[in-house]
Specification:
7-stranded mixed beta sheet; globular; Rossmann fold; alpha/beta; 5-stranded mixed beta sheet; 15 helices; 2 domains
């Protein structure tokens, strides 16, 4: 693993791992391991008391060989240049593995939004949008929400951009509310692709998802939707957790009732007759399917030794440390990687952008059908790569598929002197 788990170094290792199975020139691989450009800027904005504050902000455009840069903007005190570079690179491979015509980008402001009023956040967001204006655009770079940003921030960025450009350009940003040009089905998209990834994997393994027991770590947007849709398939949801702890019922939990309970009480803990468990107990529970849907690095190498699930589908980004991943591969646990399993979010963002360009709303049914087609086709591509190249695991297979697509686009462009 990279020194001190620098995410940018981890990304570069993952690219090297996959590149080892491809016949690609070293110079091309080197290019695919570093961003094309990074905007690093100061944002000076006025606090409500009239004082001025300066904060650091970044936008990394990692690779645009397959289309406009695409990726979220996060507000978090831990945002660094290397983190943004890594996240922008993962977006390249996520878009490529599901074959949507985007490159990868990511941005962030190093602030804790909890420290600021809404008016202050609007000023700093509009300041960032002004800095971003020459770099973004419907055909150039399309930001989206990420950690601690949502529809509100996206609307501020869209409005600033449209005002400065003297145009309307809803497709300059995704993750908008429906009335501002958002898409039906976006909220459920990540949980839906997680469910589809699990269903396809069980089918490929010759097992029935209806007979599967499931544990879900993290019961927010991704986890609760995945749980409800797996419940709909007939799987038995035996355990879920959030930051308050976990609950367990061997007879099965009703995913939607648990979601309503969490909405009312703020936590899954204390739900009806379910038994209280810890997050580590959930992660090592003897179930058929484990869905980590909380934060990165939930399972390290030590915990991975005790993971008892047969299949792990990563709804969260990076829930396994690279060392944990190695342990699970060695132990024969099937890990369905994040770049594929949670790609429903960016895929429906792509549908949102298409609808904005068409100035036409799709029905939810169409969104669901198109997403299912994209995810099932992507799974087939990953499995073909896994079987034909005798790859060590499905993550390397996903990266091989994605890297090959990016390299092809670059080489077909032939844009070297
Ligand atoms: P969210 O904030 O809605 O939910 C996160 C959940 O995780 C909450 O229930 C929280 O209580 C729980 N949690 C936090 N720390 C925990 C811990 N230590 N143990 C157990 N539970 C814990 O976030 P989300 O949008 O569902 O995102 C979850 C993950 O999915 C993130 O890694 C995110 O990057 C990834 N993801 C989300 C989307 C999306 O469209 N929402 C898309 C791609 C990837």
């Amino acid at each position: 693993m990279a020194d001190e788990a620098n995410p940018y170094e981890s990304l570069q290792e993952q690219i090297d791992d996959a590149a080892a199975y491809l016949d690609v020139e070293e110079g091309v691989i080197a290019r695919l391991k570093a961003p094309e450009r990074v905007l690093e800027t100061n944002l000076t904005f006025e606090r409500d008391d009239g004082s001025l504050e300066t904060v650091r902000a970044y936008r990394s455009q990692f690779n645009g060989d397959r289309g406009p840069y695409k990726g979220g903007i996060r507000y978090h005190p831990g945002v660094t240049r290397d983190e943004v570079k890594a996240l922008s690179g993962w977006m390249v491979y996520k878009c490529a593995v599901v074959d949507i015509p985007y490159g990868g980008g990511k941005g962030g402001i190093a602030i804790d939004p909890g420290d600021y009023s809404a008016a202050e956040l609007e000023r700093v967001t509009r300041g960032f949008a002004t800095e971003l204006r020459p770099f973004i655009g419907e055909d150039r770079d399309i930001p989206a929400p990420d950690v601690n940003t949502g529809q509100r921030e996206m609307n501020w960025i869209k409005d600033t951009y449209e005002t400065l450009e003297n145009t309307t350009a809803p497709g300059v940003i995704t993750g908008k509310a429906i009335d501002s040009g958002g898409s039906a089905g976006r909220v459920e998209a990540t949980g839906r692709s997680t469910m589809l990834a699990a269903r396809e994997t069980f089918d490929w393994l010759g097992r029935d998802i209806e007979d599967a027991t499931v544990a879900v770590q993290g019961y927010g947007n991704a986890g609760s939707v995945a749980a409800a849709l797996l419940d709909d398939l007939g799987a038995t949801l035996v355990a879920v957790s959030d930051s308050s702890g976990g609950i367990y019922d061997p007879d099965g939990l009703d995913a939607r009732t648990v979601k309503s309970y969490k909405a009312e009480t703020g936590a899954v803990s204390g739900y009806e007759t379910a038994e209280a468990i810890t997050n580590d107990e959930l992660l090592t529970m003897d179930v058929d399917l484990l869905v980590p849907a909380a934060l990165e690095n939930a399972v390290d190498a030590e915990l991975a030794v005790d993971v008892s699930a047969d299949v792990v589908v990563e709804a969260a980004n990076g829930p396994l440390t690279p060392d944990a991943d190695d342990v699970l591969t060695e132990r024969g646990v099937w890990v369905v990687p994040d770049v594929f399993a949670n790609a429903g979010g960016v895929t429906v963002s792509y549908f949102e952008w298409i609808q904005n360009r068409q100035r036409f709303h799709w029905t939810e049914e169409r969104v669901v059908d198109e997403l299912e087609r994209i995810i099932t086709d992507a799974f087939e591509g990953i499995i073909d790569a896994y079987e034909q190249n005798e790859l060590p695991n499905l993550r390397t297979a996903a990266y091989v598929v994605a890297l090959r697509r990016v390299v092809n686009a670059y080489e077909q462009g032939g844009n070297w002197p």
